[in-house]
Design goal:
This protein is mainly alpha-helical. The chain has 4 helices and no strands. The chain is elongated, with a radius of gyration of 13 Å.
């Protein structure tokens, strides 16, 4: 089964800047498939936060990738 925590883990563990867009798609699906649940209700707010901070998030992902490759 899908859970918001699981989605957040997938988002955090992804390793390219394109994954920010993937995270948005995951959150859209959570909202669509689980509208009556806490996860479904929280997904649009999390998506809005990601979109509002997309450039910063991508920069953090890139910095983390560089740190891991050292």
């Amino acid at each position: 089964s899908c859970s918001l925590v699981g989605s957040e883990m997938c988002i955090r563990d992804r390793n390219s800047t394109g994954d920010v867009d993937g995270a948005v798609l995951i959150l859209d699906k959570v909202a669509e498939l689980m509208p009556g649940t806490e996860a479904g209700q929280r997904a649009p707010r999390i998506k809005a936060g990601i979109l509002a901070n997309k450039d910063q998030i991508k920069a953090q992902i890139e910095a983390a990738k560089k740190a891991q490759s050292k």
